């Protein structure tokens, strides 16, 4: 920790110097950044756990055998040429990092090579002068790119062995739907980002009933739009991706109670608030007093939130869901819990935006669950916290076989 303190002071000084060198991303002087962490101009680069994580990765990359029983760092981490610190320093999502760490070193380097094709890692001073927005994908697109790499990893390794691992060849082999859509453009990261964005639009416009869950599946499996929709609507399996991330829910867990529980456990102790576009309206903040409220049939309302009691209640949610669904319907129980996680809160982002209310998938809501005694269907009614000056609601219904349908968000001013 003594070493970290000095490193953190240096990081903060470098971060501030980069920020002060220009008023916009175009004006930042990235040549000041002598470590990968400083290249990430997001304030998270110098705060809390993110900074400590970057420090650990950079230290291991620079001296991989330090304090480790195994003397060959490459056998443990495979961070050749500071691959790990480049990966983390560029602000890649934690899920990406977890996934890459699970891949054997010999194969992992091919993953780095693909990201280098589309997200230059600024290995030279000349590269560092290029603003972030002009040289790399946004975080969600990095996750999607990784999904395609993992699904076609053997093909990627073969291209690399043949000396043919170029951006154009990668897209042709691993993103045939992009080629088919005529969206390849100049085979660069901008064309790749535009294609991923078009897939999001297609899921939202043409498959609105499953768009929220489809986006999650799309990001984590490397599937095409048609494959994702076929999986969710008809139950046909997706081709498995290799080395699924421990930070994401593996696709085979979508149909298990434990898989659904992992999702709600990741989300229900971090409620957020709502922001209004305009000073004339109040701000509903998140925090210890906020929470996700649950009302089950015949039960008093309880809350999950940041407090210890609120965290303990997450297991109570699972137990009540299993009790409602019965253990003979694990797909139903899993998908009910999935719709109680951030995956079910997709309507918040776009549905409330038209009312100048901005939120995230973690913004606090109330869930009221009911069961149709004849069909066994479980319906979740989502409603707004009472502190909001407007009211919203929508529903999701999960059948005993796990099939889901949703209603649009309705806002009452």
What's the Cα radius of gyration? Answer: 23 Å
The rough form would be described as globular
Report the average pLDDT across residues. 74
The total number of structural domains is 2
Topology as a string of helices (H) and strands (E)? HHHHHHHHHHHHHHHHEEEHHHEEEEEE
What percent strand? 5-15%
Give the strand tally: 9
Helical residue percent? 40-55%
Summing up helix and strand content along with how strands pair, one would put the structural category as alpha+beta
Number of helices: 19
- How far from one another are the termini? 52 Å
Q: Main beta sheet, described?
A: 7 strands, mixed
**Which stretches are poorly predicted, pLDDT < 50 over at least 5 residues?**
76-85, 122-126, 244-251
Description:
With 413 residues, the chain is an alpha+beta fold. It folds into 2 domains: 2-234, no CATH class; 255-412, no CATH class. It has helices at 2-20, 36-39, 48-62, 73-76, 83-89, 94-102, 105-118, 125-128, 139-151, 153-161, 167-174, 176-180, 189-206, 211-221, 225-234, 257-267, 308-325, 330-338, 346-353, and strands spanning 275-276, 292-295, 302-304, 357-358, 366-371, 378-383, 391-398, 404-406, 410-412. The strands form 2 sheets. Strands 2, 3, 5, 6, 7, 8 and 9 form a 7-stranded mixed sheet that branches. The chain has a two-stranded antiparallel ribbon with strand order 1-4. A hairpin with a 7-residue loop joins strand 6 and strand 7. The N and C termini lie far apart (52 Å). Mean pLDDT is 74; it is low at 76-85, 122-126 and 244-251.
């Amino acid at each position: 920790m003594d070493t970290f303190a000095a490193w953190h002071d240096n990081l903060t000084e470098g971060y501030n110097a980069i920020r002060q060198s220009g008023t916009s991303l175009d004006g930042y002087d990235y040549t000041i950044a002598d470590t990968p962490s400083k290249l990430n101009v997001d304030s998270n680069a110098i705060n809390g756990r993110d900074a400590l994580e970057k420090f650990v990765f950079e230290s291991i990359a620079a001296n991989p055998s330090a304090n480790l029983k195994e003397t060959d760092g490459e056998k443990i981490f495979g961070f050749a040429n500071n691959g790990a610190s480049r990966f983390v320093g560029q602000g890649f999502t934690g899920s990406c990092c977890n996934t890459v760490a699970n891949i054997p070193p010999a194969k992992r380097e091919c993953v780095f090579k693909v990201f280098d094709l589309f997200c230059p890692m600024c290995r030279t001073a000349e590269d560092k002068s290029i603003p972030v927005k002009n040289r790399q994908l946004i975080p969600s697109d990095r996750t999607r790119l990784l999904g395609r790499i993992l699904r076609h990893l053997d093909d990627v390794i073969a291209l690399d062995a043949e000396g043919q691992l170029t951006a154009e060849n990668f897209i042709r082999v691993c993103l045939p739907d992009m080629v088919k859509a005529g969206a390849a453009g100049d085979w660069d990261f901008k064309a790749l980002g535009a294609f991923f964005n078009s897939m999001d639009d297609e899921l939202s416009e043409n498959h609105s009933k499953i768009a929220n869950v489809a986006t999650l599946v799309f990001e984590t499996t490397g599937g095409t739009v048609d494959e994702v929709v076929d999986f969710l609507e008809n139950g046909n399996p997706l081709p498995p991706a290799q080395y699924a991330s421990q930070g994401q829910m593996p696709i085979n867990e979508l149909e298990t109670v434990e898989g659904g529980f992992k999702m709600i456990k990741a989300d229900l102790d971090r409620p957020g608030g709502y922001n209004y576009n305009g000073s004339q309206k109040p701000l509903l903040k998140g925090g210890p007093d906020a929470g996700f409220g649950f009302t089950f049939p015949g039960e008093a309302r309880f809350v999950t939130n940041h407090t210890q009691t609120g965290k303990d209640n997450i297991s109570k949610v699972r137990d009540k869901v299993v009790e409602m669904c019965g253990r003979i319907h694990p797909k139903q129980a899993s998908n009910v819990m999935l719709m109680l996680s951030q995956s079910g809160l997709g309507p918040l982002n776009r549905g409330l935006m038209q009312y100048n209310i901005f939120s995230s998938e973690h913004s606090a809501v109330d869930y009221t669950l009911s069961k149709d005694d004849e069909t066994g269907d479980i319906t979740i009614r989502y409603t707004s916290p009472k502190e909001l000056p407007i009211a919203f609601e929508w529903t999701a219904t999960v059948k005993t076989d796990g099939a889901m349908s949703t209603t649009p968000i309705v806002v009452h001013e």
